[in-house]
Amino acid sequence: AAGGTDEGQPGARGHLPGAYAAYLRDPAGNKVCSYTFV
Known about the structure:
- The chain is mainly beta.
- It contains no helices and 3 strands.
- It has one domain (5-37).
- The chain has strands at 5-12, 19-25, 31-37.
- Strands 1-2-3 form a 3-stranded antiparallel β-sheet, with no helix packed on it.
- 0% of the residues are buried.
- InterPro entries: Glyas_Bleomycin-R_OHBP_Dase.
- It comes from Pseudomonas oryzihabitans.
- This is Glyoxalase.
């Protein structure tokens, strides 16, 4: 939404135990990462 694009499907990241992340690119072309730890 709002012009962003998917840059990496959400899911577990093997390099950090318990880490889940998703990547997107905003309309200006900046790559954004969202992390959470469980």
